[in-house]
Amino acid sequence: MSFLHVARRSPRVLVATSRSFSSTSRVASEAKAAADAAVKKPASQASIPKSSCPQDTVMKGLNYLKGQPQVLALADDQYPEWLWTILSPKEYPDDGPGGKADRVRRKRERQQAIKDKNFMSTQ
Q: Residue 67 sits in which domain range?
């Protein structure tokens, strides 16, 4: 793992994997508390809409044909369910060594190594 790969990690990962001279139980309990807070959702968030714009909002820039009516945003329940999960990262089932998940992980590591090498060659 290169230095650049570690530097690009999200802060949550760096906190969870950091080591210190204090007891490891404190670090583990903080990581567990952070994970529990991310999983639990308050009751107030249940009513928050999925989309970023309310129903009947004019969607500027989507109507590019002349003489057509303006495009309006629909209610959240009128959109297909897959639309709300399209930006989440794809998860592969762990099917052992040599499986799909392992191949995807190795490909990402190779691509990152190439990017790091190219970046270091420009310095």
A: 50-88
Whether the predicted pLDDT of 15 surpasses 60? no
CA distance 13 to 106: 19
* Residue 120: its H or E element: helix 100-121
Number of structural domains the chain divides into: 3
The whole-angstrom distance between residue 62's C-alpha and the CA centroid of its chain comes to 26
**What does the alpha-carbon distance between residue 67 and residue 88 come to, in Å, rounded to a whole number?**
37
Tokens of 120: 């270091």
Do 6 and 37 lie in one domain? The reply is yes
pLDDT tens digits for range 53-73: 899 999 998 988 999 999 999
